Amino acid sequence: MAPTQDLREFRSQDIVIAQQAEVNYLINHRFQWGKSDTLSLLPSALNNNTRPKDESISSYQLLSPEYFKADIPFDSEFISIIHNDWPYSIPIEIEHTFIWLRLPIFHLDLVPAEIVARIQQDGLCGFTGNDELPSSPSTLPECLPALAEWGIITDNLIRSPSDSPEIEEMVRNGGREIDGFVKRRWVGSE
Hints:
This protein is mainly alpha-helical. It has 5 helices and 2 strands; from the N terminus they run H-E-E-H-H-H-H.
Protein backbone atom coordinates (compact mmCIF):
# COMPACT_ATOMS: atom_id res chain seq x y z
CA MET A 1 0.00 0.00 0.00
CA ALA A 2 1.41 3.39 -0.99
CA PRO A 3 2.03 5.98 1.76
CA THR A 4 -0.46 8.45 0.21
CA GLN A 5 -3.15 5.77 0.23
CA ASP A 6 -2.44 5.07 3.92
CA LEU A 7 -2.74 8.79 4.65
CA ARG A 8 -6.06 9.02 2.74
CA GLU A 9 -7.49 6.04 4.62
CA PHE A 10 -6.33 7.47 7.95
CA ARG A 11 -7.76 10.92 7.11
CA SER A 12 -11.03 9.33 5.98
CA GLN A 13 -11.34 7.45 9.28
CA ASP A 14 -10.47 10.67 11.14
CA ILE A 15 -13.30 12.55 9.35
CA VAL A 16 -15.81 9.78 10.10
CA ILE A 17 -14.87 9.81 13.79
CA ALA A 18 -15.15 13.62 13.94
CA GLN A 19 -18.55 13.58 12.23
CA GLN A 20 -19.83 10.89 14.58
CA ALA A 21 -18.63 12.95 17.53
CA GLU A 22 -20.42 16.06 16.21
CA VAL A 23 -23.65 14.16 15.61
CA ASN A 24 -23.49 12.63 19.08
CA TYR A 25 -22.81 16.06 20.59
CA LEU A 26 -25.78 17.62 18.81
CA ILE A 27 -28.29 14.83 19.40
CA ASN A 28 -27.31 13.91 22.94
CA HIS A 29 -26.24 17.26 24.39
CA ARG A 30 -26.95 20.41 22.37
CA PHE A 31 -30.51 19.73 21.26
CA GLN A 32 -31.95 19.48 24.81
CA TRP A 33 -35.10 17.72 23.59
CA GLY A 34 -38.19 19.17 25.27
CA LYS A 35 -36.26 21.74 27.32
CA SER A 36 -35.51 25.45 26.99
CA ASP A 37 -32.20 26.29 25.34
CA THR A 38 -29.84 27.11 28.21
CA LEU A 39 -26.66 26.24 26.31
CA SER A 40 -26.60 29.02 23.70
CA LEU A 41 -23.60 31.29 23.89
CA LEU A 42 -25.63 34.23 22.56
CA PRO A 43 -28.34 35.91 24.60
CA SER A 44 -31.84 36.13 23.16
CA ALA A 45 -33.88 39.34 23.18
CA LEU A 46 -36.87 37.04 23.61
CA ASN A 47 -36.83 35.87 27.19
CA ASN A 48 -39.39 33.59 28.78
CA ASN A 49 -41.45 36.56 30.00
CA THR A 50 -42.16 37.77 26.45
CA ARG A 51 -42.95 34.38 24.98
CA PRO A 52 -46.56 33.21 24.82
CA LYS A 53 -47.58 30.70 27.44
CA ASP A 54 -47.95 27.19 26.07
CA GLU A 55 -51.36 25.90 26.97
CA SER A 56 -51.13 22.66 25.02
CA ILE A 57 -52.43 19.43 26.48
CA SER A 58 -49.72 17.45 28.27
CA SER A 59 -51.13 14.16 26.96
CA TYR A 60 -49.52 15.15 23.64
CA GLN A 61 -46.29 13.84 25.15
CA LEU A 62 -47.78 10.35 25.41
CA LEU A 63 -48.70 10.18 21.73
CA SER A 64 -46.33 10.16 18.80
CA PRO A 65 -47.98 12.32 16.14
CA GLU A 66 -47.83 11.17 12.54
CA TYR A 67 -46.20 14.47 11.52
CA PHE A 68 -45.32 17.90 12.94
CA LYS A 69 -48.34 20.04 13.79
CA ALA A 70 -48.66 23.66 14.88
CA ASP A 71 -50.09 22.73 18.27
CA ILE A 72 -47.10 20.67 19.42
CA PRO A 73 -46.13 21.79 22.94
CA PHE A 74 -42.98 23.88 23.12
CA ASP A 75 -41.58 21.43 25.66
CA SER A 76 -42.45 18.30 23.68
CA GLU A 77 -39.91 15.50 23.65
CA PHE A 78 -40.21 15.61 19.84
CA ILE A 79 -38.81 19.13 19.50
CA SER A 80 -35.68 21.14 20.24
CA ILE A 81 -35.76 24.90 19.79
CA ILE A 82 -32.26 26.33 19.98
CA HIS A 83 -30.70 29.71 19.30
CA ASN A 84 -28.12 29.56 16.53
CA ASP A 85 -24.82 30.42 18.15
CA TRP A 86 -22.70 28.88 15.42
CA PRO A 87 -20.91 31.72 13.64
CA TYR A 88 -21.55 32.21 9.94
CA SER A 89 -22.59 35.33 8.05
CA ILE A 90 -25.61 36.23 10.20
CA PRO A 91 -25.47 39.75 11.64
CA ILE A 92 -25.36 39.77 15.45
CA GLU A 93 -28.58 41.80 15.68
CA ILE A 94 -30.55 39.06 13.92
CA GLU A 95 -31.71 36.12 15.99
CA HIS A 96 -31.60 32.89 14.06
CA THR A 97 -33.39 29.98 15.67
CA PHE A 98 -33.34 26.33 14.73
CA ILE A 99 -36.28 24.04 15.33
CA TRP A 100 -35.07 20.45 15.30
CA LEU A 101 -37.72 17.75 15.15
CA ARG A 102 -38.06 14.04 15.74
CA LEU A 103 -41.15 14.12 13.51
CA PRO A 104 -41.58 14.46 9.75
CA ILE A 105 -42.69 17.88 8.50
CA PHE A 106 -43.36 16.70 4.97
CA HIS A 107 -46.59 14.73 4.88
CA LEU A 108 -49.01 13.94 2.06
CA ASP A 109 -51.92 15.15 4.23
CA LEU A 110 -50.41 18.62 3.81
CA VAL A 111 -48.56 18.43 0.50
CA PRO A 112 -50.59 17.39 -2.57
CA ALA A 113 -48.84 15.37 -5.26
CA GLU A 114 -48.92 18.37 -7.64
CA ILE A 115 -46.41 20.27 -5.50
CA VAL A 116 -44.23 17.51 -4.04
CA ALA A 117 -41.29 18.26 -6.38
CA ARG A 118 -41.46 21.98 -5.60
CA ILE A 119 -41.58 21.39 -1.83
CA GLN A 120 -38.68 18.94 -2.07
CA GLN A 121 -36.69 21.67 -3.84
CA ASP A 122 -37.81 24.78 -1.91
CA GLY A 123 -38.81 23.34 1.46
CA LEU A 124 -41.51 24.51 3.84
CA CYS A 125 -41.30 27.61 6.00
CA GLY A 126 -42.97 29.82 8.56
CA PHE A 127 -42.47 33.48 9.41
CA THR A 128 -43.69 35.93 11.97
CA GLY A 129 -43.85 39.70 11.87
CA ASN A 130 -45.27 39.70 8.33
CA ASP A 131 -48.67 38.98 6.88
CA GLU A 132 -47.00 37.65 3.72
CA LEU A 133 -43.89 35.58 3.10
CA PRO A 134 -40.85 37.82 2.77
CA SER A 135 -39.54 38.20 -0.75
CA SER A 136 -35.94 37.44 -1.56
CA PRO A 137 -33.75 40.32 -0.47
CA SER A 138 -32.74 42.71 -3.20
CA THR A 139 -29.22 42.63 -1.76
CA LEU A 140 -28.80 38.88 -2.38
CA PRO A 141 -26.31 39.36 -5.25
CA GLU A 142 -24.14 41.47 -2.92
CA CYS A 143 -24.12 38.70 -0.28
CA LEU A 144 -23.20 35.81 -2.56
CA PRO A 145 -19.44 36.50 -2.86
CA ALA A 146 -19.09 35.37 0.77
CA LEU A 147 -20.47 31.96 -0.26
CA ALA A 148 -18.59 31.60 -3.56
CA GLU A 149 -15.87 29.37 -2.08
CA TRP A 150 -18.64 26.79 -1.42
CA GLY A 151 -19.86 27.04 -5.01
CA ILE A 152 -22.92 29.14 -4.19
CA ILE A 153 -23.13 31.72 -6.93
CA THR A 154 -26.00 33.43 -8.74
CA ASP A 155 -25.79 31.00 -11.68
CA ASN A 156 -26.25 28.02 -9.33
CA LEU A 157 -29.29 29.31 -7.46
CA ILE A 158 -32.44 27.33 -8.09
CA ARG A 159 -35.61 29.32 -7.60
CA SER A 160 -39.07 28.08 -8.34
CA PRO A 161 -40.92 30.48 -10.60
CA SER A 162 -44.29 31.79 -9.47
CA ASP A 163 -47.09 29.48 -10.46
CA SER A 164 -50.86 29.70 -10.74
CA PRO A 165 -52.76 31.14 -7.75
CA GLU A 166 -54.06 27.61 -7.02
CA ILE A 167 -50.55 26.12 -6.87
CA GLU A 168 -49.26 29.04 -4.76
CA GLU A 169 -52.13 28.45 -2.32
CA MET A 170 -51.20 24.74 -2.13
CA VAL A 171 -47.61 25.74 -1.29
CA ARG A 172 -48.78 28.11 1.48
CA ASN A 173 -51.14 25.44 2.76
CA GLY A 174 -48.32 22.86 2.75
CA GLY A 175 -46.42 25.01 5.24
CA ARG A 176 -49.44 25.91 7.40
CA GLU A 177 -48.37 23.75 10.36
CA ILE A 178 -44.89 25.27 10.43
CA ASP A 179 -46.23 28.79 9.94
CA GLY A 180 -48.84 28.25 12.67
CA PHE A 181 -46.20 27.00 15.11
CA VAL A 182 -43.84 29.90 14.39
CA LYS A 183 -46.62 32.47 14.88
CA ARG A 184 -47.69 30.76 18.10
CA ARG A 185 -44.12 30.62 19.44
CA TRP A 186 -42.77 34.06 18.46
CA VAL A 187 -44.63 37.33 18.89
CA GLY A 188 -44.65 39.08 15.51
CA SER A 189 -44.08 42.55 16.90
CA GLU A 190 -40.77 41.61 18.54
